């Protein structure tokens, strides 16, 4: 249960409104004069590896693309663009390893859980 005050968007004229946060709520919810339809969809199980990989690759491409223009960038006080791209690429490599490690840990945890259930079978 959540109590929402006057600035929470669900009450009017300074009144406090009670909002139940349960999973078994109906497909619609009344909020003020509006009726919100709640979609019955499962959340995506995204591990982040592809997203971090694409971002890291884009930073790498930006670094390589800016490298020939280092002299011009330095003359105009914009050499930090090059170093920002390099920093984004380096941090992306750390992020990629972090996401891959997280995927491995989650997979091992799921394997351990399913392995434990199988050992209980006769």
Give a topology summary.
Blueprint: E1 2-4, E2 17-19, E3 28-31, E4 34-37, H1 49-66, H2 70-75, H3 80-119
Antiparallel strand pairs: 1-2, 3-4
Helix pairs in contact: 1-3
Explain how this protein is built.
This protein has a two-stranded antiparallel ribbon. It has a two-stranded antiparallel ribbon with strand order 3-4. The protein has helices spanning 49-66, 70-75, 80-119, and strands at residues 2-4, 17-19, 28-31, 34-37. It contains 3 helices and 4 strands. With 122 residues, the chain is mainly α. Helix content is 52%, strand content 11%. Strand 3 and strand 4 form a beta hairpin. The mean pLDDT is 81. It folds into 2 domains: 2-37, no CATH class; 49-119.
List keywords for this structure.
122 residues, mainly alpha, 2 domains, two-stranded antiparallel sheet, two-stranded antiparallel ribbon
Number of structural units classed as domains = 2
In terms of quaternary structure, the protein is single chain
Q: What fraction of residues sit in β-strands?
A: 5-15%
Tell me the distance between the termini. Answer: 43 Å
Rg, alpha carbons = 25 Å
Order of strands in the sheet with the most strands?
1-2
Q: Strand-and-helix sequence, N→C?
A: EEEEHHH
Structural class call reads: mainly alpha
Number of helices in the DSSP assignment: 3
Q: What's the overall average pLDDT, rounded?
A: 81
Shape: flat
Helicity, as a percent range:
40-55%
Main beta-sheet strand count, sense and barrel state: 2 strands, antiparallel
Number of distinct beta strands: 4
**Low-pLDDT windows of residues:** none
């Amino acid at each position: 249960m959540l109590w929402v005050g006057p600035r929470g968007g669900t009450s009017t004229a300074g009144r406090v409104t009670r909002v139940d946060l349960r999973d078994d709520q109906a497909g619609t919810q009344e909020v003020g004069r509006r009726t919100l339809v709640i979609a019955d969809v499962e959340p995506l199980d995204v591990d982040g590896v592809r997203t971090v990989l694409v971002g890291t690759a884009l930073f790498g491409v930006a670094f390589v693309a800016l490298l020939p223009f280092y002299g011009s960038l330095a003359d105009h006080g914009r050499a930090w663009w090059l170093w920002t791209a390099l920093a984004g690429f380096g941090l992306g490599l750390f992020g990629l390893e972090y996401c891959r490690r997280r995927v491995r840990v989650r997979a091992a945890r799921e394997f351990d859980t399913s392995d434990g259930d199988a050992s209980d079978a006769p």
